Amino acid sequence: MTMIHWVQAGTDALFGLQRLIRKQGKDVRVWTRDGISLDGISADIQQPYDHDRLSDAVQPGDVIVAPRPTEIAIARLAMDRGANMAVGWHVSDNLRAAVAGAAERGLVVMAEAGMVPGIEHLMARDLVNEYRHDARPGDVLHFTCYGGGMPKYPDNFRHKFNTSPLSLLNALATPTSWIGDGEVRHADFPFDVIRSHDLNLPTPERHQVYPHYDVAPYLQAYGFDPDWQIATAQRGAIRLKGWDQGWAEVFAHIRETGKDQKALRELAEVLWKQHPFMRDEADRAVLSVSLRAEAEGKTRWHREWVMDAAGGRNGFARFRLNSLMLALGAEAIVAGRISPGLHIGVTDPDLIANWLVEVTHQAGHSRRINHTRNPSEQAS
Q1: pLDDT of 42-69, one tens digit each?
Q2: Per mean pLDDT, which range of 30-44, 148-162, 228-242, 289-303 is the poorest?
Q3: pTM of the full predicted structure?
Q4: Which positions ≥6 away from 281 have C-beta within 8 Å?
Q5: How much is the CA Rg of the chain, to the nearest whole Å?
Q6: pLDDT at 376
Q7: Angle, to 10 degrees, between the axis of helix 261-274 and the axis of helix 248-257?
Q8: How does strand 229-240 pair with strand 140-151?
Q9: Cα(87)–Cα(69) distance, integer angstroms
């Protein structure tokens, strides 16, 4: 019997947990954070998270689901106990080191399996897979991938938080790179290169975007051919118009303190107190992933995924989609659909297609647009 252990679970995990329990029955254990008890989840399968007790409970072949950034100790625990993992964390050097022997031991570690990072990986791979069938020598490619959460009804700050702002602040304090005009470009702070971006919704909206982290590893992960000519490639965040003005004081603070963790933790605590989402308040989860090919200066192929999901009384959209993705990841691991080793999301075309259907069903608005087709021929 394969047991699924969802660790450090809070209300943000409820949607995915309830799906897993419906499908996996009693083969789910919930390890709650901060000693809370989750409504709607049987008390028989939940208990407060404790590292030592989790270690005792996990058996070889089990699956550990870890949605939020946690200590690498959980990854080491999984490897020690012979367990698989589905996690929402970015792949880091520390994670790579902790799970270095996973493939040889037949263990699956699927990282970046939440909303962001996560759903945008599905969209990017879907576009790359389709373009590969139409690729022509001499094509010049432009790839952009943006995602983020935002309030549906914003204030002057243009942002609100339903989890700690610390990971976002760390990203803003981390140098970034992207490809522009065919060359690798760098910025010490992502907020130095904020620009406008028009989101292709039924009623178009102007937003702001900026690159964060490094794009090169993702081009390889998405299956870009090394021989393809890339003029533009950028992965980053999408924010509400005016976000740069609302965050001007935050940027100045980060520019002064850099990645000093004490200063960032203190700033995160202040921002979370000042700009939290209220209970049942509507958030938005937005994604825009585009791949365009030019030939002789003219667009000849262009596809784009756009998603706009709203939350409210049925819970935050970000939480719903994040936990859905992690539940899908756990199900796929249990079913033996993921090969051993460390993965950035899933690469199997059938899983990508199926998961995009699940995401579209939950998102409300999620659509792949063919920009080179006559508008009257576009599928809804």
Answers
A1: 999 999 999 999 999 999 999 999 987 6
A2: 30-44
A3: 0.95
A4: 151, 152, 153, 160, 311, 312
A5: 21
A6: 45
A7: 160
A8: parallel
A9: 8
How does pLDDT run across 23-46, given as a tens digit for each residue? 887 799 999 988 889 998 999 999
Residues 202 and 286 in one domain: yes
Q: Is 205 in the same domain as 265? A: yes
Residues 103 and 215 in one domain: no
Instruction: Determine if residue 8 is left, alpha or beta; phi over 0 gives left, psi from -120 to 50 gives alpha, anything else beta.
Output: left
Going from the C-alpha of 57 to that of each of 73, 78, 83, the distances in angstroms are 16, 11, 11
Provide the terminal-to-terminal Cα distance of the chain, rounded to the nearest Å.
Answer: 42
pLDDT above 60: residue 380: no
Yes or no: say if 306 and 369 are a contact pair by the CB < 8 Å rule: yes
| pLDDT tens sequence across 350-362 | 999 999 999 999 9
Lookup: tokens for 318: 């970000």
DSSP 370: E
Q: pLDDT value at position 210? A: 98
Give the CATH number of the domain where residue 372 resides: 3.30.360.10
Domain count, the chain: 2
Q: Name the helix (H) or strand (E) containing 125.
A: helix 119-134
Q: Is the pLDDT of residue 70 over 70?
A: no
DSSP state of 202: S
CA-to-CA dists, residue 127 to 62, 133, 210, 260, 301, angstroms: 33, 10, 21, 38, 11
E strand segments, 247-329: 283-295, 298-310
The DSSP secondary structure of 323-345, one letter per residue, reads HHHHHHHHHHHHTT-S-SEEEES
Per residue in 118-127, pLDDT tens? 999 999 999 9
Give the Cα separation of 79 and 342 in Å (integer).
12
